[in-house]
Write a structure and sequence with these properties.
Number of domains: 2
CATH architecture of the largest domain: Alpha-Beta Complex
Number of helices: 9
Radius of gyration: 20 Å
Distance between the termini: 24 Å
Strand content: 25-35%
Order of helices and strands: EEEHEEEEHEHEHEHEHEHEHEHE
Shape: globular
Helix content: 25-40%
Number of strands: 15
CATH superfamily of the largest domain: Medium-chain alcohol dehydrogenases, catalytic domain
Largest sheet: 7 strands, mixed
CATH topology of the largest domain: Quinone Oxidoreductase, Chain A, domain 1
């Protein structure tokens, strides 16, 4: 451990635990020992943690006995300890990271290969809004859907944490991006982020509106975070040999779509889960992001911060997210370190 007291680590810290399956009230602050670094880990003194739909779903299911009872898949902060095998991250580095749970805490562990520097032009706290959305965007569009140059995209939830960053990244890379949203105001935000057009799914069939906007054509890839709601419309909105990628299991309900039309279009329906990906694949995504996306952040790509709350108000953050009127990312700020 370094002599510099700036990086001194206490024996215990505050964590937000999922104490039972249930509503936001099951999130409780608990004092626990600070986690210890494995050989390939870094310990981050957390500045902010991102709040994601995955955290809500985990809370509804109850404590995670496989990964961590502490929710949170992304953090930003300063590295205060490194494992014995870590050579590419140093104590004192300002970073953001994808974490395998444990983000709602004063200190969090991350695999060094899933740690990225805070981009120039972005604050330390705002950087917590990047990892989950950008890892999700990179993996699903370029690994799962194999998005090719010049192909077009439809994103359900254009102002979500994933959608708002994906629109900017894909637009910057030359793709025509369309979005669906739950209000005219959110559609307008999606357009300001770079979407060619956005469609209010509450006021009409988005597939019809999309094809009208594209002269009768559909799109090549659809990213669907809405579960099983849009099976038929998704197929209708797809080009021949297009791909539909699902990010949400929709509570486990069965997916229904017109099979004959899917066959006629030779389309693919697939999906992914980010958390179970092998570490070697997450490391490759991190390298791709650093090379391809990090130079765009702060200029052509910037996260939307919907709201900030202190770590102790994690339950209120979940209430806000579940209410469904969020544009961008909710962050939980840790007060102990950087103000």
């Amino acid at each position: 451990m370094p002599l510099d007291p700036t990086f001194a680590v206490p024996a215990c810290h505050a964590e937000i635990h999922i104490t039972a399956a249930g509503g936001p009230d099951v999130l409780q602050r608990i004092e626990r020992p600070v986690p210890r670094c494995g050989a390939s880990d870094v310990l981050i003194r957390v500045a902010s943690a991102g709040v994601n739909r995955h955290d809500v779903n985990q809370r509804r299911r109850g404590p995670d006995t496989v990964h961590s009872p502490v929710p949170g898949l992304e953090v930003s902060g300063v590295v205060v300890r490194v494992g014995d095998d870590v050579t590419d991250v140093r104590i004192g580095d300002a970073v953001c990271a994808l974490v395998n749970g444990g983000g709602y805490a004063e200190y969090a562990l991350a695999d060094h290969a899933q740690v990225l520097p805070v981009p120039a032009g972005l604050s330390l706290r705002d950087a917590a809004a990047l990892p989950e959305a950008l890892f999700t965007t990179a993996h699903n569009f370029f690994n799962v859907a194999r998005l090719a140059p010049g192909e077009s995209v439809l994103i359900h939830g254009g102002t979500s944490g994933v959608g708002s960053l994906a629109i900017q990244v894909l637009t910057a890379r030359g793709h025509a991006v369309y979005a669906t949203c739950g209000s005219d105001e959110k559609c307008a935000i999606s357009r300001t982020l770079g979407a060619v057009d956005a469609f209010n799914y509450r006021t009409g069939a988005f597939a019809d509106a999309l094809k009208a906007a594209r002269g009768g054509e559909g799109v090549d890839v659809i990213l669907d975070m809405a579960g099983v709601v849009y099976g038929r419309q998704n197929v209708d909105a797809l080009n021949r040999r297009g791909r539909i990628v699902h990010l949400s299991p929709g509570g486990g309900a069965d997916l229904s779509f017109p099979l004959r039309e899917l066959m006629r279009k030779e389309a693919v329906v697939t999906g992914s889960l980010l958390r179970p990906l092998p570490d070697i694949e997450k490391a490759a995504i991190a390298q791709w992001l650093r090379a391809q996306v990090w130079p765009l952040i702060g200029t052509r790509v910037k996260p939307i911060i919907a709201q900030r709350l202190p770590l102790a108000q994690a339950s209120q953050a979940h209430e806000i997210l579940e209410a469904g009127d969020v544009a961008g990312k909710i962050l939980l700020d840790v007060a102990h370190a950087f103000d």
